[in-house]
Design a protein that fits this description.
The structure is a homodimer. Chain A has 8 helices and 9 strands. Chain A is α+β, with helices and mostly antiparallel strands. Chain A has 3 domains: 105 residues, Nucleoside Triphosphate Pyrophosphohydrolase, CATH 3.90.79; 75 residues, no CATH class; 61 residues, Winged helix-like DNA-binding domain superfamily/Winged helix DNA-binding domain (Arc Repressor Mutant, subunit A, Orthogonal Bundle), CATH 1.10.10. In chain A, a hairpin with a 7-residue loop joins strand 8 and strand 9. Strand 1 of chain A pairs antiparallel with strand 1 of chain B. Chain A binds a DNA duplex through helix 8.
DNA sequence: CCGGATATACTCACTTCGAGTATAAAAGGA
DNA sequence: TCCTTTTATACTCGAAGTGAGTATATCCGG
C-alpha cells in the first residue's frame, strides 16, 4: 500500500463570548485564523492543538472538536512535495480579558458575517444580499429553478423560515454567486470582512457547527463563567445563534434539562430585581446526550 | 509558516443494506476497510474518493461525507518522513450484487459489533460484555464512579435507556477495558471480529454517524432501490439502527415528512396484502433539513 | 371460503411546545 | 415616601406532536 505525501497544518476556530458578542481568535489583526504545522512531537492532533493553544493564549481550552479536513484549496503548495492538507478544529474558550486587548486578537463573528446576526431583526444588509442573489439566479436560466430553491431554503425566503444553522450554506451560495471575496481583492461590492485564503469559510464551518451543537449538547457552558444568571446564559445563546429567544420558554427548557443548579447567591448588578446565580452541574452530566430518539421505537 | 510533512491516506466506510442486513465493503476477506493513498491527481479529497470507488466497485456512490481525520494511531510510519494522516469517509451505496460474491467483499456490520444488533432483543453477548465491564469498573477504585457513569450511559444500564447512537462510545469503553482486540492477537476472550489496525474503530465511527444522521436527514433513501414499500423502508432503518420500530408510528412519521410519494403500483411479493410502492421525491427535497429549531424563538 | 399473513387506517391519552400574562424585587427620581 | 422603571421569576392555556394500541383491508393457500 503506497502512501501519498503531503504537508499538514492545523487551523483553529477558537471562540468565546464576551459582552454578549461572539468572538473568534485571530492573527494578523483579524485577517487570518491561528494555524501551525502539525509537529511530529505531538501525541495526537487533538493533544497537539490543545498544547499549542495553551502556550499561545494562556487560556485553557475547554472544549475541542475536529471540524473538517480540507485539501481542495485554491492555494496548493507549489513545490514538488505534494499539496497541503488542513485539519481544522473548533475550540471553546472562557475569555476573560477585555476584547481587543492582549496578545491574541479577538474579533466579532459578525464582522465577517454581518448578515448572520438577527438579534435586532433581520439586518439591512440582507436585502442587498438577496437582491444580488436574485440576479445570480436569473443569470443562468438552465439552473434557475435549482438555484432558487437553494437560496430560498438557505435564506428563509419564499415560505421557508430563517434557520440559523445554515450559515455555511449561505456563505457557499454567496461565494458561488461572487458576493464574497476570499483573498482581499475587492471587486465591486462584497459583504463582510474577508480573511486570508479560505479562513473565512473555515470560520463559517465552525459557527455553523457550534450553532447546531448547542441544541443537543450542553456546550454553551464551556463559554460561561463559573456562576451566571439565566439571563446571561440566554444572552450567550442568543449571541451564538444570532437570534432572540422567548424568555419564559428558554427558562423552562433549561430547567427541565436539569443541567444547572442554584448556587444560593444572587446578583443585583443588572438594574432590576436581583437574579439568582446558577452553576453548571459538571460531574453529574459529563456524558449526556440531550437528543431524544426521534425514531418511533416499539416494545420488545 | 512552516508546514509539517506527512503521509496521507484515504479510508472509506462504504455501506449498503441487502436482505435486511447492513453491510460494509471490505478488502482482505473482511479484515480491512478499503483505503488508498491520497493522489496528487485528484481535484479534491471527495472527488478522489468518489472516482476511486467507482473504478473499484462499479457501483456509483450516492452519498459521501467526511468522517474523521486520525493521526494518533499506534502504527505510525516508521521511516523518517513523518507520520500517517488518515482521512476517513462514509459512503452509501445501493448494493445490487448478492452478498459475499463479486470482487469487493461485503460483510455484515454485526459480525464486527454483535452487541449492536437489538432487533431480536438485547443480544446474549451483552450480558457477557457488561459483566466484564463491571470487573473493569471495580478494578480501579479511584475512577470507579466515573467509569460506572460512562458504562451505564453507553450501555443503557442503571436507569438509562439503550441509545443506538452511542456505538462509538461503547466500542471505546470496551477498548479501554481490553475487551476488544485490534491487531488480531486474541488474548483471552474478546468480542466481535477484529480488523487491521484501527479499521474497526473507523467502522464504529461510520456506523454511529449514520445512525445519528438518519434521524434528521433523508439519507436512508440513498440505500433504497428506486421504488420500495414502506415495510422495506422500515426494515432498512431497523437494520441500520439495530432496533425494531413501531409500524403505525413509523408510517405516520414518514408521511408527515412528505419525503416520498406513491408510484401508483403495488407489489404482492410479500405474502399478504399487496403493498403500495413509493419513490423518494428527489428534486423537491435536495436541500431539506428535518431538524426543528429546538430553541424557543421569540417573535420580532 | 376461511385462516394466516401482511398492509393500511384510525383513535386516544399524554407530553411537549409556542405564546402570552401575571407577580416579585430591586433602583431611582418626584 | 411612593411611584415608575427595570429586570427576574412564576403560572396558564391551547395547539401540536408523540407513544401505544386497535380496527379494517386484501392477498395467498388450503
Amino acid at each position: 500500500m503506497t502512501i501519498g505525501l503531503a504537508h499538514a497544518e492545523l487551523i483553529a476556530v477558537l471562540s468565546a463570548v464576551t459582552g454578549d458578542e461572539p468572538r473568534v481568535m485571530t492573527v494578523r489583526s483579524g485577517d487570518a485564523l491561528p494555524s501551525g504545522p502539525f509537529e511530529l512531537g505531538h501525541r495526537s492532533l487533538q493533544a497537539g492543538l490543545r498544547e499549542w493553544v495553551r502556550d499561545q493564549t494562556g487560556h485553557p481550552l475547554g472544549y475541542l472538536e475536529q471540524l473538517y479536513t480540507f485539501a481542495d484549496r485554491d492555494r496548493t503548495h507549489e513545490d514538488a512535495e505534494g499539496r497541503t492538507i488542513s485539519i481544522s478544529y473548533l475550540g471553546l474558550v472562557r475569555e476573560q480579558a477585555a476584547p481587543g486587548a492582549g496578545k491574541p486578537g479577538w474579533h466579532g463573528w459578525y464582522e465577517y458575517f454581518p448578515w448572520e446576526d438577527h438579534r435586532r431583526g433581520g439586518p439591512d444588509i440582507l436585502a442587498d444580499i438577496t437582491g444580488r442573489l436574485e440576479g445570480w439566479i436569473a443569470s443562468e436560466p438552465a439552473r434557475r429553478e435549482h438555484r432558487q430553491r437553494r437560496v430560498d431554503f438557505a435564506f428563509g425566503l419564499g415560505g421557508a423560515v430563517w434557520n440559523e444553522d445554515l450559515g455555511l450554506q449561505r456563505y457557499e451560495l454567496m461565494y458561488e454567486a461572487g458576493l464574497v471575496t476570499e483573498a482581499g481583492c475587492p471587486p465591486a461590492k462584497s459583504f463582510g470582512r474577508s480573511m486570508f485564503a479560505d479562513h473565512r469559510r473555515i470560520l463559517a464551518t465552525g459557527i455553523a457547527r457550534l450553532r447546531a451543537k448547542i441544541k443537543y449538547r450542553p456546550v454553551v457552558f464551556e463559554l460561561m463563567p463559573e456562576s451566571f444568571t439565566l439571563s446571561q446564559l440566554q444572552r450567550t445563546v442568543e449571541a451564538l445563534a444570532g437570534l432572540t429567544l422567548h424568555k419564559p420558554n428558554f427558562r423552562r427548557l433549561i430547567d427541565q434539562q436539569e443541567l444547572i443548579e442554584e448556587t444560593g447567591e444572587a446578583t443585583s448588578e443588572t438594574g432590576g430585581r436581583p437574579a439568582k446565580l446558577f452553576r453548571y452541574r459538571h460531574a453529574v452530566l459529563e456524558e449526556r446526550a440531550l437528543s431524544g430518539s426521534k425514531l418511533p421505537l416499539s416494545r420488545n
